[in-house]
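Q: What does the predicted 3D structure of Group III truncated hemoglobin look like?
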Amino acid sequence: MTPNTDITSLEDIKLLVNSFYSKVQEDALIGPIFNEKIMGRWPEHLEKMYRFWQTILLEEHTYTGSPFPPHKQLPVNTQHFDRWMALFTETVDHLFTGKLADDAKLRAQNMAQMFNYKIEYFRNAGRN
């Protein structure tokens, strides 16, 4: 598929989220971590991700909550976030092109860096 349109609708968000998390579930590095954490609740997780990205990218406020706490105790590090980001970027670039597609990648990168930093912070604080 050649990128030809930007992210403009909830249907685009669903395509992005479903495509991305299909790759995540199969990935040798991060798949086992996600699959163990979510434990068969993928439809529920995907619905939450639709609302999250719909709120972030389309400014249609359907997501409520705090995205960090469920990730706080994950056994992940920079390598895992780099892989997550590579899969996300690959998925966006395969499906979309445009301002919101670029914004999705930037926001994902910022989130990955922040989550990685916070996880490391809490992990190190627990050692003291």
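A (community wiki): The structure tokens above were generated from the sequence. The CA atoms of residues 89 and 122 lie 27 Å apart. The chain has five helices and no strands.
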